[in-house]
Fold each of these.
Amino acid sequence: MEPIADPTADPSIRIDSHLDGVRERSLADDVLDGLTRPFKELPPKHFYDARGAELFDRICELPEYYPTRAERAILTASAVELAELTGAAELVELGSGTAAKTRVLLDALHEAGTLRRYVPVDVTESMVRECAQMLTEEYPGLQVHGVIGDFERHLDQVPAAVGPRLVAFLGGTIGNFPPGSRRRFLRTIAGLLGPGDHLLMGTDLVKDPDVLEAAYDDSQGVTAEFNRNVLRVLNRELDANFDPDDFDHVARFDSEHEWIEMRLRARREHTTHVRALDLPVRFAAGEELRTEISAKFTPERLRGDLSAAGLQLVSWLTDPDELFALTLSRLTDTPAPATDTSGASS
Ligand code: SAH
Ligand code: AVI
């Protein structure tokens, strides 16, 4: 499908939207697929309508949710070094959200005098538009080329690089992919890089399960509301009749897989109708719907995933409490082909 270019009076902003109808289709497919399985599941990208994005912002401010603060601390401590190491003219950010922490990086690249363009990629349209507006005002001379789309489908729509490229994938969002898709996705990201380009990725680290579970089950109930928000999205987009109050929020650390699972547990036996799909969905009392996994990393897990995707670690940066890691990587050096010096031909 042809992107809808946004005619804007501001020549420093270009926004392409690739979601026209695609989001609704993918939601319908995910519901048909995920809610008819014996173990019900939905992918986490459907949390993020405007309300979900706002709830996520509130999560980032919660005392229990340490990843945002830890990642910001690492960025603040290392932004100048990262700007020097990458010499980036372009920052492409996947799942950019409000780009709150990104400003630390943009400041350093702007200060270094290399930054020309910022390319935010996010499924939430309002975020990409607002962020483009704000950043072009905050950074004179910066070009913003926003891509509204699903990063699992639309990475081929990221425009050609204008110079040394830094791809940022912050917040630990890579942990929301199950292991196989995670490696596949990293390989797709590697496809955005050329020699001399870098990937900067945030990953949450394995730690005390109590700390992890509190981060996903906060005392103010904001994460519970974020979790239930997916039901409101289904009600609005697919004319379903979920009552969010019929479900309890569950957040558990799975110590075998070393990931947090968020689920919604039905408080009573009931049947919901997803009217747009003519789909009745029965829940037994206590039945759980998995809405997110959030994998936690060790250096070995991360190195393995990067290497499987054709990437090699350049720097491993962490906060003083080693809660979170930010890693810089680049394409793996491929050994030069062996030259045949024997003079024999085959
Ligand atoms: N990078 C920010 C936001 C992380 S929240 C931070 O570090 O705080 C995850 C972000 O990814 C949200 O903005 C959400 O809208 C976006 N997102 C989730 N799934 C996506 C997908 N499949 N394609 C594009 N964006 C996605
Ligand atoms: C976006 N992502 C990395 C968050 C996480 O921690 O997995 C989403 C989130 N879910 C619950 N709280 C925050």
Amino acid sequence: MELIDSYGRKINYLRLSVTDRCNMRCSYCMPAEGINKLHRKDILNYDELFSIAREAVTLGIEKIRVTGGEPLVRRGICTFLARLADIPGLKQLVLTTNGLRLEEMAEDLRSAGVQRLNISLDSLRPELFARITRGGDLPRVMAGIAAAERCGFPVKINMVVMRGINEAEIIDFASLAIHKPFTVRFIEYMPVFKEKNWKSLAVPGSEILARIAEHYTYIPVGRGELSGPAREYRLEGGVGTIGVITPISGHFCERCNRIRVTSTGIARGCLLSNTEADLKPYVRTFDRHGLQEALREIVTNKPGMHQISAHKADHSPFSMACVGG
Ligand code: SAM
């Protein structure tokens, strides 16, 4: 079976958030005052999340990314991941993490059947890292990355580039892909909760690449069908790759293949759209048919493209930790 939206896009990628809780407080992800935590009773249990994943795969989803909040803070996550990995028809199970708990969990994640890890890392300088994450411990994250490598995970590092904050580290991050087989991805900052200075924080992907070009020659590399939206390059003399994700300056909506489901069972066709479907009533009444219909509807109503640009952000503010970044 295939899920095709009204613009002819094949939708085969589900980002499934398992929690809104996080052990970091990244300044670009949540406001300083924090977020209102979701009520426990609203958060789906693992059986409920599993039933959404299973129906989504039945309909045509081939790749699931487990995200959050921080997925590794939810108790029992590895058992849940192993259940997901066993869903017939699922081709890729991947996870996004801030890496804080990776050192102790990498081995279990590998055994559970997780194929790849995306690790969010926005600075290689301990003090700045702590400032951006409001208290994060860089050595612990680096130990987590080393553990992931030891367990044989292909490592992807995601850096959100912010002007005047961590832009001076673009080359340091690119250099990680010289000696290690890492994929380093530079992500344009998105004004999800529209902080006052949001316009001044954005660094366009073209500028990121231009800065890298001052130090390295880079060559475009081809991508697979289930790959994400990054444009990817190999640096001359390097063993890894770099990529740039440009949701703002060069949105990739025409190639978007994803839907999202939050830990409370809210499905969204687009991160930046307010059109949602509540899957919880179907899940809690074991209504498989209703659940499939609701997922199909989210795909059908998926917007053609989002409306954020470098100058305009008309969406209702939200935290990535709630929607599942
Ligand atoms: N806790 C996990 C982590 O840190 O990767 C998963 C959740 S986090 C919300 C998922 C991704 O969203 C991270 O890579 C983070 O950098 C990205 N993200 C959050 N807020 C963002 C923003 N304003 N602009 C761009 N990316 C953002």
